[in-house]
Amino acid sequence: MAEREAGLAAEVELTVRYAETDQMGFVHHSNYLIWFEAARTRLFQRLGLTYSQLESEGIYSPVVAADAKYLWPARYEDLIRVVARLDRMTAARVRFNYEVYRVKDDKLLATGSTMHGFIDQAGRPLAIKKRIPLLWEAAKQAGIGSGS
Amino acid sequence: MAEREAGLAAEVELTVRYAETDQMGFVHHSNYLIWFEAARTRLFQRLGLTYSQLESEGIYSPVVAADAKYLWPARYEDLIRVVARLDRMTAARVRFNYEVYRVKDDKLLATGSTMHGFIDQAGRPLAIKKRIPLLWEAAKQAGIGSGS
Amino acid sequence: MAEREAGLAAEVELTVRYAETDQMGFVHHSNYLIWFEAARTRLFQRLGLTYSQLESEGIYSPVVAADAKYLWPARYEDLIRVVARLDRMTAARVRFNYEVYRVKDDKLLATGSTMHGFIDQAGRPLAIKKRIPLLWEAAKQAGIGSGS
Amino acid sequence: MAEREAGLAAEVELTVRYAETDQMGFVHHSNYLIWFEAARTRLFQRLGLTYSQLESEGIYSPVVAADAKYLWPARYEDLIRVVARLDRMTAARVRFNYEVYRVKDDKLLATGSTMHGFIDQAGRPLAIKKRIPLLWEAAKQAGIGSGS
């Protein structure tokens, strides 16, 4: 538990929805990317950055890469905990990684990561240090490198 | 609030996910049916009926009709409360209705209803009274009519 | 078939996706609203109105009500035809109805309707006759009433 | 084009749905996994293997890993072509890779891959050579290695 709290991390709990299952009887694998995002949203909120507010300032954060490993299936009505952690930051990009747990037995069901750029409405890349200083400073304080 | 607790009702809270928005900047209208279902799942749980358990007994509850009215848009990061209420029951069908509120100002964003049958794995209709007596008795006690 | 071509109608074909199924083994009912929308998009295109272009002119068309009846389940890999038809128009609102067929046996799986308003970016209602004259004239020529 | 036809490949075309967009105005990144799957389904069909039939024989093919790179955004109403190609096969696992193109200018929007196991209904791994010989032989003929 302590390990999960360390660094720049946040978590959300959610209950698996019927619509998230597929005919194999498991959660369809595409939904994990949506769950990752829910935990990432919470992490931004913890930093005092609401994603909605960033967008209102014309800052968008598209996903440029994503990956996931599926270890054990999640099922309908399972209570799930998703942990997002800031993993790496460069001048213009940031990477988060994720862990998905089944709450009742703390079983790790999936892991993953996403890489994000920051762009303005015209699609031009933005410097994190200048445009999202809260994120930059928080990463520095957590000892997360900003080397490329 | 008191009104919401009356009868056979249950509610869930959820935070709007980014993937649920569309390019209009609002939650896409199809997601409300998924939210309705989350509250219906909770209502089944309150009755001691987990939907997963029903399915393990070979009882399925397909949606035969659904409708929704969209009054005000939900937006990314909004905290939402969805109330499901058992509305009507006949020998083989049950109807739920729903209300979707934005928590911060208790604003009613949408209403809707779904009608469900109960079938076995071969698709044959099941009598609620016989196969799901917990649901039948709960509805009776709540004064919810079982006339056709 | 002839009947389907009459009036202001359009159709799309689609193959059921695995992610659209749920653990009951059928297409989850929320997806039909998304399929309705795909056929509605095609109908707008047939009128020379791309929905993307409307939005670039600051015209949005939120769904204010939707309903569906589910007659028979759609299954993974089924080829599906969705028909959208302009049903009714008033000064500020338009209603479409839909039919969902399984192509291999022309079986009607579902029907439904959606009601739409037209608003600008500030959320103010727009008059169809003035702001979307192509739609207004097409409805007139098809004999679709504009009474409230 | 010729390159795309080579080996064990298949493709599908699809039109971006409104529900697939998010408030950034692009297709939400989770949908690409669903598109990959649509092309993979087609590839299975080309091999004479319908995925539905595999499941009716008690053969399931869960995704054990997935990744995607997002190069350029897809937008509402874009016509998209998704190419799936069998990339690697071992005794018990198979990997596909994917390319997503915007049809109008043949622009490559995204790439990705998925790794799959094969299991029975009890979750036990199945040997591809024995249980899905059509897939095994097709891979052999296409020169796709079966080394681990």
Describe the model.
The structure is a homotetramer of 148-residue chains. By secondary structure, the first copy, chain A, is an alpha+beta fold. In chain A, 26% of the residues lie in helices and 32% in strands. Chain A is built from five helices and five strands, in the order H-E-H-H-E-E-E-E-H-H. Chain A has helices at residues 2-5, 31-46, 51-56, 128-131, 133-141; strands at 9-15, 63-70, 79-89, 93-102, 107-117. A five-stranded antiparallel sheet of chain A has the order 1-3-4-5-2, covered by helices on one side. Chain A is elongated, with a radius of gyration of 16 Å. Residues 1-5 of chain A have low confidence and may be disordered. The A-D interface holds A 23-24, 26, 29-31, 33-34, 55, 60, 62-70, 73 and D 23-24, 26, 29-31, 33-34, 55, 60, 62-70, 73.
Short synopsis of the structure:
4 copies of one chain form a homotetramer. Chain A has 148 residues and is an alpha+beta fold.
